[in-house]
Design a protein that fits this description.
binds thymidine-5'-triphosphate, Wheat Germ Agglutinin (Isolectin 2), domain 1, Rossmann fold, binds zinc ion, alpha/beta, single chain, binds magnesium ion
Amino acid sequence: MRGKLKVYTGPMFAGKTSTMIQELEKYDEFVAFKPNMDNRYSEEKIVSHDGNGIQANSIPTDELIHIIKSLEYDGISAVGFDEAQFFDDSLIDAVDHVLECDTDVLVSGLDLDFRRENFGCMYELIKKSDEYEKLLAKCEVCGSNAEYTQRIIDGEPASYDDPVVLIGAEEEYEPRCDNHHVLSGEMDSNYEDILSDIG
Ligand code: TTP
Ligand code: MG
Ligand code: ZN
């Protein structure tokens, strides 16, 4: 028997983490992990229905495979990975190992970075998934469905060459639709219109 892989992606502010938690809570026993580079919610706990709080363990990426292989899966029906875009390729092996132990795996993470490029190994996990949900946010400019994340630095759109990893929230990022997502290296004649839309 092999577990099922369920993947939740989308832009920032789409509710990926809370959706994954809701789904994890349907299982009797689960554990959750996230890479310890993102300290935004270091106090946040993933709490199970029966009140036995289970923490989303912050772990270093290079210890992921060791931790996953040393777990005892008899009593665990699901394993969750949050912020999964920040784990390296070893996440694929970790996920396979858990699935082979007949335990379901739930993964939430950004499918695309601020440049709209594949983030980490999320795309590979989507391809392997048994269930896949792309969550959407609302475009900060026009209110329509947003599937992209706009990075904004000092009021200006970030450029394609900026580093991919920048931990942050509302101060640096906004959900945007296709029309309103921009990179400063990519500015074209539409950019003036977009700026005036934003006001
Ligand atoms: P998320 O959990 O995706 O953000 P969120 O909590 O707003 O979304 P959700 O409600 O759907 O769970 O966290 C994304 C993290 O990734 C955040 O710290 C910013 C960072 N990030 C990058 O490092 N590079 C990027 O290109 C983008 C888009 C985000
Ligand atoms: Mg999140
Ligand atoms: Zn828009």
